[in-house]
Amino acid sequence: MNYSGVLVSACPGRYDEMLRELDAIDGVEVHQKDPDHNRCIIVIEAPDVPAEMDLFKAVSNLPSVVDAALVVHNFEDDAVVQSPNN
């Protein structure tokens, strides 16, 4: 599974609209809101890199978004982790 932390900035006067648009996208979750600066931190979750990039592009292309910047990316393997006692 792929996870990305993205800083998203709203167009002036469109912060609430941006939050509604982000909430409507499956695979995107708003984690931190900063209404004083018209921005928020979201986490994108996708099964693979192409799907993750599609979500990032969808966020970037929202009418209310002026900028989306990738802050962190993490890839978690689907492998089963076994305890030392197994």
Description of the structure:
The protein has a four-stranded antiparallel sheet with strand order 2-3-1-4. A hairpin with a 4-residue loop joins strand 2 (28-34) and strand 3. The chain is α+β, with helices and mostly antiparallel strands. The protein contains two helices and four strands, in the order E-H-E-E-H-E. The chain has a single domain, classed as Lrp/AsnC effector binding domain/regulation of amino acid metabolism (RAM) domain (Alpha-Beta Plaits, 2-Layer Sandwich), CATH 3.30.70. Helices cover 24% and strands 41% of the residues.
Topology:
Elements: E1 2-10, H1 15-23, E2 28-34, E3 39-46, H2 49-60, E4 65-75
Antiparallel strand pairs: 1-3, 1-4, 2-3
Quick structural summary:
The protein has two helices and four strands; from the N terminus they run E-H-E-E-H-E. With 86 residues, the protein is of the alpha+beta class. A hairpin with a 4-residue loop joins strand 2 (28-34) and strand 3 (39-46).
CATH level-four homologous superfamily name? Lrp/AsnC effector binding domain/regulation of amino acid metabolism (RAM) domain
Q: What top-tier CATH class fits best?
A: Alpha Beta
Number of helices: 2
Please give the largest β-sheet: 4 strands, antiparallel
Specify the overall morphology: elongated
Structural class, from helix and strand content? Answer: alpha+beta
How is the CATH topology named? Answer: Alpha-Beta Plaits
Percent helix, as a range, is 10-25%
What's the structural domain tally? 1
| Strand element count | 4
Order of helices and strands: EHEEHE
What would you say the CATH architecture is?
Answer: 2-Layer Sandwich
The percent range for strand residues is: 35-45%
Round the Cα radius of gyration to an integer and report it. 15 Å
Strand order of the largest sheet: 2-3-1-4
